[in-house]
Design brief:
By secondary structure, this protein is α/β, with parallel strands linked by helices. It is built from 19 helices and ten strands. Helix 5 (172-214) packs antiparallel against helix 6 (216-222).
Length: 636
């Protein structure tokens, strides 16, 4: 069974008393990012380019979307010209001499029939435009979901391949925030902004061309406000970018706080830290609120400013148009048509300005996602595949040096020889390096120097998958999944039969309480096994290890959460389990290791004593002091 199957944070994070690579707060995991300085996206162009690659993967949908956007944009561009032609029919008809044609009833002649035909055409144009707008909305929604589906899948697959060290050194809440909030921001932006950008480009080009066609002088007037628009956008961009990056960082930090507070709720309550947790959450929440307000203010002000600039442009068009009309350069209907095209010309710019907040948010989120996907996968230079039949279980630690943090060594020239089938117990004070030995044996971490041999082969030459498949770990911190009891027991060996599953549960003394559950082995456990006791959780993980039938067994305080009688039952079951298997036991309760073949006593990363229980008691050294402190009340 893969050791990783036993817990979400298996042995990878320094546990027990081992030195940790970072401070660990009560009730949860490491905290980082709380005081990080907000920065601009490191490379906006590169991030945008990578995001576009995800979008354009769905080529057929892109073609359909672009086609519908083009048709809709062209239809909208045709509207003002048709309106202008229709308005011409309101001008009284004149004869060849320029005199008004007066009808018999005394009214001037107006071609209402011609205007009616154009109005019908105008209605058809806007109806078709609405239809294609609906189509492009439908396609953009699908494109958005397909894009983020692929991105979310890539992110999750990357998380599965990340080194344990990366997971240990980054808040889980922040990683989850990238999977949820950041991906959702990308989804919303793709859905709402992609069509606007494509439509905007087409509309700007088309409107500009038609404006030139109607009057190049008026076109120059309309372009007067463009430099002002560029200036305002450039100035606001640097502020919006900064605050949205900070907002995303704080959102990840607050998710991390919530995740660790909920996970460690009992610890928080037990130690009366409710107020401290609340105050810390409020501090982060205040920072997030402040950053969010500033981001929204600077992001939201851009749209109104663009509207003001656009209205100034319309005013200039009306004033100059009136002057040009008085001079006979253009007709009155041209002013109306020009105002409409000027609106269509500036509308895409205003839309982009209004959506700049969400666009920047999406780019920032995409950059945070790519920060994870750019991480190196867990390396595995091993080529040799271990088969269970090939393993004898001889383990050799030779001159091992290791540190989680540089210049703070945990193991110092550690040497240990373990023969096949031996039961080795590892004890020592908090921080002596007990769990680190397991980290290195399972290759959750790599040694700084020295090597570990399994049956004479350096474990770095063995594939991690096959190495871990032949190692089963039962940890003090049990983890079960939201699945049936039977599925949790079969987690390391899914093909096992019901009879084998029940046999493993009986060996672990778990069968009786399982059969008393509402659906027996088909009972679905709550998240992390919340509907059973801690002791019952531990029995299930022991059953999981028994069913996996490993060649190497690791017990990390495996019976710490069960009562004395159940512990005795498990110990008898473990004797059968450990027969013929190499077993490493990390123990704080020394009563569980009295029958170990050899007990290794660690202190400050070195072996200070080794021998069986009787030998170490007789020596009256470190082990004797530890043992007597537990059973005779003697201080060491």
């Amino acid at each position: 069974m893969r050791a990783l199957n036993n817990t979400q944070k298996p042995v990878g994070a320094p546990q027990g008393g081992d030195k940790k690579p970072m401070d660990m707060r009560p009730g949860g995991g490491p905290r980082r990012g709380m005081n990080m300085i907000a920065e601009k996206p490191k490379n906006m162009k590169k991030t945008l380019s990578r995001l576009l690659k995800y979008i354009v993967t769905n080529k057929f949908m892109i073609i359909m979307l672009v086609a519908s956007v083009i048709i809709s944009a062209l239809l909208n561009l045709a509207g003002p010209s048709i309106q202008g032609e229709a308005l011409k029919f309101l001008t009284p008809s004149t004869d060849e001499g320029g005199k008004l044609i007066i009808l018999e009833d005394g009214t001037v002649k107006v071609d209402f029939a011609g205007m009616a035909r154009l109005l019908v055409l105008l209605g058809a144009v806007y109806l078709l435009s609405s239809l294609f707008t609906y189509i492009q909305g439908h396609i953009s929604a699908k494109l958005s979901q397909k894009t983020v589906y692929r991105m979310r899948g890539d992110l999750f697959r990357k998380i599965e391949k990340l080194p344990i060290k990366y997971i240990d050194n980054h808040p889980h809440g922040d990683i989850m925030s990238r999977m949820t909030n950041d991906i959702e921001n990308i989804s919303n932006t793709v859905s709402n902004s992609v069509t606007s950008l494509i439509s905007g480009i087409i509309t700007i080009i088309g409107a500009f061309s038609l404006m030139l066609y109607h009057s190049w002088q008026m076109t120059l007037v309309a372009l007067v406000t463009i430099p002002l628009t560029v200036l305002v956008t450039t100035k606001l961009t640097k502020y919006v970018r900064r605050y949205f990056m900070r907002q995303q960082q704080l959102l990840g930090a607050i998710n991390s706080q919530v995740e660790e507070s909920v996970t460690g709720y009992k610890t928080v309550v037990a130690f009366g830290h409710e107020n401290e947790i609340k105050d810390e959450f409020n501090r982060t929440g205040d920072e997030l609120r402040t950053a969010g307000i500033k981001a929204e203010i600077f992001g939201g002000v851009m749209g109104p400013l663009m509207n003001i600039i656009g209205n100034v442009g319309f005013l200039l068009i009306v004033i100059c148009g009136a002057l040009f009309t008085m001079k006979g350069l253009i007709g009155i209907t041209t002013i109306y048509v020009f105002i409409q095209y000027s609106k269509q010309f500036t509308r895409p710019i205003n839309e982009v300005a209004n959506q700049y907040t969400s666009i920047l948010n999406a780019i920032t989120g995409a950059e945070r996602v790519f920060e994870i996907t750019d991480q190196n996968d867990e390396t595995d230079e091993g080529k040799k595949v271990l088969l269970p039949a090939d393993i004898k279980g001889n383990i050799s630690f030779r001159n091992i040096c290791f540190s989680y943090v540089q210049s703070e060594p945990v193991l110092k020239n550690f040497n240990l020889e373990i023969s096949s089938g031996q039961k080795i117990a590892i004890v020592g004070k908090t921080g002596s390096g007990k769990t680190t030995i397991i980290n290195l044996l399972t290759r959750f971490y790599e040694t700084d120097s020295g090597k570990i041999l399994l049956d004479g082969t350096d474990i770095r030459e063995i594939t991690k998958a096959s190495l871990r498949k032949n190692i089963a770990i039962v940890l003090q911190d049990t983890v079960l999944f939201s699945d049936t009891v039977g599925a949790n027991i079969r987690y390391g060996r899914p093909e096992a039969s019901e009879a084998e599953t029940e046999a493993a549960a009986k060996a672990a003394k778990a069968h009786d309480f399982i059969t008393r559950m509402p659906e027996g082995y088909d009972t679905v456990l709550d998240e992390s096994g919340g509907n059973i006791s801690q002791g019952q959780k531990q029995l299930l993980t022991i059953a999981r290890a028994i069913l996996a039938d490993p060649k190497i067994l690791i017990l990390d305080e495996a019976t710490s959460s069960v009562d004395t009688r159940t512990e005795m039952d498990i110990q008898s079951a473990m004797i059968n389990l450990m027969q013929g298997r190499t077993t490493l036991i990390i123990a704080h309760r020394l009563s569980t290791i009295r029958d170990a073949d050899k007990i290794i006593v660690l202190d400050d990363g070195r072996i200070v004593e080794a021998g069986n229980h009787n030998e170490l008691i007789a020596a009256e050294g470190v082990y004797y002091g530890l043992y007597m402190s537990q059973f005779a009340g003697i201080e060491t």
